[in-house]
Design goal:
Layout (H helix, E strand, L loop, with lengths): L3 H6 L2 H10 L21 E5 L6 H10 L4 E2 L8 E7 L10 H10 L3 E11 L8 H20 L5 E7 L8 H8 L9 E5 L18 E5 L4 H12 L3 E6 L4 H11 L2 E4 L7 H11 L7 E4 L14 H24 L8 E5 L3 H4 L5 H22 L4 E7 L5 H4 L3 H9 L9 H12 L10 E4 L8
Parallel strand pairs: 1-2, 1-3, 3-4, 4-5, 5-6, 7-8, 7-10, 8-9, 10-11, 11-12, 12-13
Helix pairs in contact: 7-8, 7-15, 9-10, 10-12
Amino acid sequence: MADRYANFANSGLGRTVVKRLGLPDPPRLRRFKAGDPLVSGPVLLGAAPGGRLAEPVRKLLEAAGAEIKDQTGEGVRVSALVFDATGIGDSDGLRALFDFFHPYARALEASGRVIVLGSPPETTASPSEAIAQRSLEGLTRSIGKEFGRGVTAQLVYVAPGGEAAAESTLRFLLSGRSAYVSGQVIRVGAGAAPTPSDWDRPLDGRLALVTGAARGIGAAIARVLARDGAEVIALDVPAAGDALAGVANETRGRALQLDLTAADAPERLAGYLAAGPHGGVDILVHNAGITRDKTIARMDSSRWDQVIGVNLTAPERVNGLLLERDLIPSGGRIVGVASIAGIAGNRGQTNYATSKAGVIGLVQAYAPVLAERGVTINAVAPGFIETAMTAKMPIGLREAGRRLNSMSQGGLPVDVAETIAWLASPGSATVTGNVVRVCGQSLLGA
């Protein structure tokens, strides 16, 4: 469904009305288009004294074709502000953040990017340093709410030894692919990550399985993974067979009709993958999900069981068997689709919120175990995304979902898909255990 208010707010008359009345002002977001450069203008790079990331990041960005500036004159616009805060060792050192962002905040263009680089507090040498590094979260989340105009702000904690593995994450956050991701804290672990031979097709030669792929977010995920070079198996229930075949044809992939809640579904899926030319699967995206909304006092047991079964139990069972049979090799990627409902809760969705919090728990429980096998597991947590499902919501709830975030608008299925493609990239080899909200920095939850 079209967002008529956003269309009006971006018209000539609408801009005047919105400004005079102080109404929500949804900007036009910079989303990725084929052929786009990484950034639309210069990147201003700053650092606190003693930081360890500024020079590696400078080399990385220059190799990617970005123009780097250490300072800029009055009236000169930049596309991104990147600050290395790893040298901040105590609360007095936090003044370096003010000294960088205060004079340059107005130099950032619309749909610009703010990235603060820090050290994971648990890796620091002293309590004072840990406190200072944890303080960075408040800065980036506040900037995401202050700057407006489609600007996003993120904190990236890079573990010592993970400097060279941050490229995939920085490319995602600086590009139009992260248009609806803001206010997030992302952790890049220690270790090396392969550099794709072609950053436009980082998934070449990899096999991806996307569940719930017949429509909406699942179809968008299949399209983006195929665009990035993956061979895609689009899976959905038999009742969605026609739509599923359309997605498979569009992506030049394969359609697989399977009800993942069936008792023999994991066995059948494992057999299908083992018999294929890859002998397994490189990227597994658990997108299939349902809602059966009622307050818990009015909910019957079937609504509870169906939602938990599809959204949580099925991914657990599939993961368990595929891992047991070594059908997800080293270098594999597992991505779950959670929800901000699993973080903040939602009235009338106790079953759904429970299942999506469980997806987050699945990521956190499996991440250290799978790291030993060279497999990453992460989740995305969408907020209000414009789909056929949200189009059926009552208008009041729909408008609240659209406006109660820093972007004052709903996201698109492609925003979720782009985030999953980043997590699926070979270059994201040390990004694991993360739950990344795709919500325009929703005011709900953390």
